[in-house]
């Protein structure tokens, strides 16, 4: 007995010596912290989804399966959601692939500028695109329909207030991430195979279809699944364009169930968790795709990515495609919004327009707008900076260490991606409202919420880069006697630098435009810009909202330009 | 026929049984020494209010109007910083309830545009009793029983609006039943069930025209929107031809901007609904809340409120908003049996959501 106790004590001592290192403690804190941040709100959601009693009483007094059984009455909404998300994903991945190929694999002029312009839609609040396109292509009197009738056409040539319209706006403004993901894969692709195809007489188009496409298939599939998950949780376009057409998707249905009295939190939770099951399987497939096979491209032996030399006509035609996209996704909607922002009352009937600067004056005079904008930028900076540090350690633990539970955490951090953002926001609201920590209604809660919901984005982005780094480079450092922290500081982080900068920028932008969770967590002292713009659209009029959106876009753009200039030195190669 | 006020009050108290919090109830009264400041009378402890330094208002009113009104208050008391949250009445009430069940107290003054919700909140002991000296200027049936829990802060009116550039005046509807004309099918907007004023309209027209009116209106496939702003925008853009539950305040605001709109006060009467204001129990800034409520209910507060939000005041000594006729010149329809109105909410939600195709 005493021998057994002695052996247990020895084993415990050995285990403790092994674990109680800087690496062990850091790993434990990061894994437990991130796991708790994600799991805690999910538990509230699960509990609420079985609540069949008073929705206001918390914790629930009655439990049952009715909320799940009730989902059969929502089949129409589920069908609409699948249709819109599917359409938007197909469009986003198609645009993303074609544009990424042109800008990454061909020698069209102005590639760097075009690449930056392609990303612009991702930098504006999601509602902006929907508002702009409802002015451009609204039924009856949208600008394009007026133009159509001026040219002698009958009826409406386009109607953005339809499933196709919603999908179109979602693809343009929320599908940019597909372009970014495919583009990144194409840039790190070894061009030798493409060159072999060309040498053996393959045409450019044939090379693209037979060589480039199969090479980037995992990235395209990954982007497809990721974008589909994003589209399922997309809210703004469905709110602005779907409701006038009585076309409800899961997010607008959840919004209406929860932003009313009595609120139907239970049904919203059940709906969200049902989607979670589907999305979790889909995201697991995505994970398998991105982690399958060998992805190492950063080794001692580097290659120089080369682009295909196109003929004169091809170059101009391809660059024309890119500029056409920029015109449709950036110039046209921002122009429509700018015009609206100067109108005394928003109207698409131009002869009735009365122009004024009053909307800008009102927007800037309204203290809450100023504070919302300031808060959003501050949160973006804070969440991106702190978040990237934690994510760097987290992805290293997940993909490089032997820490127990790292596999579970890898799945766990995908949860916020698999639940529609609005439902996860609801879980976060209950979770933090019911903790005896007074952070409800403060920016701290929003910061925690943003970090939690952006965890999958961070892990996906930086995880991909970690997988590209040859493990032997780090092992070399350890063999030479470097401590874990020293190895991280001198080998891992410098190699990850471009990925860290890219993740930082993504975090900053995603925080500034965050809507789904903010809409529940924003309080009188913690206003942020995206829900403020939605609120303004709902109560203050399109003209004022347009002015706010223009101010927000300009502020974010200026902030980004400053940030990008200042990180240029850090990243070695600027992402801009 | 209006029920006598006393009977109404008695029914109300019975119906919501125990609505008053025992501590707050009967003993409360007007303070001994109300003081006159900045053109209004108050019982609030002003130094304490200034020491609290903040006031948080939850209101369903148009955001820029609320911000403007609160700026007027802050101009008088610069040491009290004002903040607000704007959501539609139902959503706002759900938020307050979620906060309170977690014993998190953020809001000081609550404005609800649905009296039914105010009754519910009173029943849940949500209000803090404070009898403002300014409440004397309000009719007894414009105040809670017991007095001091909530008071009508303004009156909203719902009628019909149209765009004369799209619908010639001769063809415009004159009364509620004219909305059943097939020419408005698919070209009419209404509000969502979240709107307090829509609840009033549904309830009153149910009484006046019967439930079949709404059954027929459902066949017109009206489109429901969360806010009057979206409704008016669509009317101005020619996307809709007529607007049911057209808020008079919104019409005045848009007309001032020069928008091509006309307003119809239906022959059978426009529907009126109050907005009720009260201090929330456990308000984090109770003194600032009292000072604000005194100011808000006085002509000194009502004037900037009405200028900012174009609503009619509930007290008779305040002029109507610019360009508006006085309420006394309107034929108004409004509930007199408040418990019945309160009880109608679940039925209203179900019927209205089904009617407007909300899933």
Describe this structure in words.
The complex is a heterodimer of chains A (576) and B (359). Chain A is mainly α and 576 residues long. Chain A has two domains: 23-54 and 358-576, Orthogonal Bundle (MetI-like fold); 70-293 and 306-356, MetI-like fold (Orthogonal Bundle), CATH 1.10.3720. Chain A is 73% helix and 0% strand. In chain A, helix 8 (163-174) packs antiparallel against helix 12 (236-242), helix 17 (367-400) packs parallel to helix 21 and helix 25 packs antiparallel against helix 26 (542-571). Residues 571-576 of chain A have low confidence and may be disordered. Chain B is of the alpha/beta class and 359 residues long. Chain B has two domains: 35-154 and 273-324, D-Maltodextrin-Binding Protein, domain 2; 156-272 and 333-355, D-Maltodextrin-Binding Protein, domain 2 (3-Layer(aba) Sandwich), CATH 3.40.190.10. Helices cover 37% and strands 18% of the residues of chain B. In chain B, the strands form two sheets. In chain B, strands 3, 4, 5, 6, 7, 8, 9, 10, 11, 12 and 13 form an eleven-stranded mixed β-sheet that branches. In chain B, helix 3 (63-76) links the parallel strand 3 (54-59) and strand 4. Chain B is globular, with a radius of gyration of 20 Å. Classes of the chains: A mainly alpha (576), B alpha/beta (359). At the A-B interface, helix 13, helix 20 and helix 25 of A face helix 3, strand 4, helix 4, strand 9 and helix 8 of B.
């Amino acid at each position: 007995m005493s021998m057994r106790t002695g052996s247990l004590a020895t084993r415990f001592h050995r285990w403790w010596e092994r674990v109680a290192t800087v690496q062990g403690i850091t790993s434990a804190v990061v894994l437990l912290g991130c796991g708790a941040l994600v799991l805690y709100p999910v538990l509230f959601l699960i509990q609420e989804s079985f609540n069949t009693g008073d929705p206001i009483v918390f914790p629930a007094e009655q439990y049952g399966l009715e909320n799940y059984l009730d989902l059969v009455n929502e089949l129409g909404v589920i069908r609409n959601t699948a249709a819109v998300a599917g359409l938007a994903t197909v469009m986003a991945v198609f645009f993303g692939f074609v544009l990424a190929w042109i800008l990454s694999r061909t020698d069209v002029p102005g590639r760097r500028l075009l690449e930056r312009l392609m990303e612009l839609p991702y930098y504006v609040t999601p509602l902006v695109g929907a508002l702009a396109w409802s002015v451009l292509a609204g039924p009856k009197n949208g600008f394009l329909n007026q133009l159509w009738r001026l040219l002698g056409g009958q009826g409406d040539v386009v109607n953005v207030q339809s499933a196709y319209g919603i999908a179109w706006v979602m693809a343009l403004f929320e599908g940019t991430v597909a372009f970014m993901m495919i583009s990144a894969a194409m840039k790190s692709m070894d061009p030798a195979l493409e060159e072999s195809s060309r040498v053996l007489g393959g045409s450019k188009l044939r090379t693209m279809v037979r060589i480039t496409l199969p090479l980037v298939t995992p990235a395209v599939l990954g982007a497809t699944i990721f974008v589909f998950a994003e589209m399922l949780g997309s809210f703004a376009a469905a709110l602005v364009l779907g409701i006038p057409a009585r076309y409800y998707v899961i997010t607008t249905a959840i919004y209406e169930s929860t932003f009313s009295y009595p609120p139907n939190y239970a049904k919203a939770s059940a709906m969200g968790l049902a989607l979670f099951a589907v999305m979790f399987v889909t995201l697991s497939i995505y994970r398998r795709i991105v982690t399958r096979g060998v992805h190492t491209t950063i080794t001692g032996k580097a290659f120089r990515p080369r682009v295909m030399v196109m003929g004169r006509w091809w170059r101009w035609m391809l660059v024309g495609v890119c500029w056409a996209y920029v015109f449709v996704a950036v110039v046209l909607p921002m122009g429509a919004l700018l015009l609206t922002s100067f109108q005394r009352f928003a109207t698409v009937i131009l002869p009735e327009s009365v122009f004024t600067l009053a909307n800008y004056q009102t927007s800037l005079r309204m203290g809450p707008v100023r504070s919302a904008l300031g808060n959003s930028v501050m949160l973006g900076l804070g969440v991106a900076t702190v978040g990237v540090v934690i994510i760097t350690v987290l992805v290293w633990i997940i993909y490089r260490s032997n820490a127990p539970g790292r596999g579970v955490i890898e799945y766990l951090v995908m949860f916020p991606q698999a639940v529609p953002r609005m439902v996860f926001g609801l879980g976060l609201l209950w979770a933090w409202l019911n903790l005896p920590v007074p952070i409800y209604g403060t920016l701290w809660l929003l910061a925690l919420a943003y970090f939690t919901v952006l965890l999958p984005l961070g892990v996906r982005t930086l995880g991909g880069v970690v997988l590209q780094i040859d493990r032997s480079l780090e092992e070399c450092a350890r063999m030479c006697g470097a401590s874990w922290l020293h190895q991280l500081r001198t080998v891992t982080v410098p190699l990850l630098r471009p990925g860290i900068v890219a993740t930082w920028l993504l975090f900053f932008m995603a925080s500034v435009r965050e809507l789904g969770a903010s809409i529940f967590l924003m309080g009188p002292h913690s206003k942020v810009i995206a829900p403020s713009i939605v609120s303004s659209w709902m109560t203050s009029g399109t003209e004022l909202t347009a002015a706010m959106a223009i101010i927000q876009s300009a502020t974010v753009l200026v902030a980004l330009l400053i940030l990008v200039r200042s990180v240029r030195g850090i990243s070695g190669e600027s992402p801009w | 026929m209006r029920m006598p006020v006393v009977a109404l009050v008695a029914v109300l108290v019975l119906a919501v049984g125990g609505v008053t919090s025992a501590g707050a109830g009967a003993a409360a009264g007007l303070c001994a020494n109300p003081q006159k400041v900045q053109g209004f009378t108050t019982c609030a402890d002003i130094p304490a209010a200034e020491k609290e330094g903040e006031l948080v208002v939850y209101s369903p009113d148009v955001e820029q109007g609320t911000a403007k009104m609160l700026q007027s208050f802050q101009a008088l008391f610069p040491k009290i910083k004002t903040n607000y949250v704007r959501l539609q009445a139902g959503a706002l009430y759900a938020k307050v309830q979620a906060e309170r069940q977690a014993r998190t107290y953020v809001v000081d003054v609550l404005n609800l545009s649905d009296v039914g919700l105010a009754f519910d909140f009173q029943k849940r002991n949500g209000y803090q009793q404070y009898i403002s000296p300014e409440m004397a200027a309000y009719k007894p049936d414009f105040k809670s029983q017991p007095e001091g829990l909530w008071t009508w802060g303004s009156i909203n009116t719902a009628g019909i609006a149209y765009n004369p550039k799209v619908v010639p005046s001769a063809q415009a509807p004159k009364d509620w039943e004219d909305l059943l004309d097939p020419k408005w099918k698919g070209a009419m907007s209404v509000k969502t069930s979240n709107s307090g004023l829509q609840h009033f309209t549904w309830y009153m027209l149910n009484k006046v025209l019967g439930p079949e009116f709404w059954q027929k209106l459902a066949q017109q496939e009206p489109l429901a929107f969360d806010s009057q702003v979206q409704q008016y925008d669509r009317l101005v853009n020619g996307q809709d031809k007529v607007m049911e539950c057209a808020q008079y305040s919104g019409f005045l605001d848009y007309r001032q901007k020069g928008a091509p709109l006309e307003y119809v006060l239906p022959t059978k009467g426009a529907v009126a609904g109050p907005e009720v204001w009260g201090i929330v129990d456990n308000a984090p800034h109770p003194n600032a809340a009292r000072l604000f409520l005194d100011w808000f209910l006085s002509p000194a507060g009502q004037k900037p409120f009405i200028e900012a939000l174009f609503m009619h005041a509930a007290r008779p000594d305040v002029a109507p908003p610019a360009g508006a006729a006085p309420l006394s010149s309107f034929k108004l329809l409004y509930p007199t049996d408040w418990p019945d109105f309160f009880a109608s909410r679940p039925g209203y939600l179900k019927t209205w959501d089904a009617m407007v195709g909300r899933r």
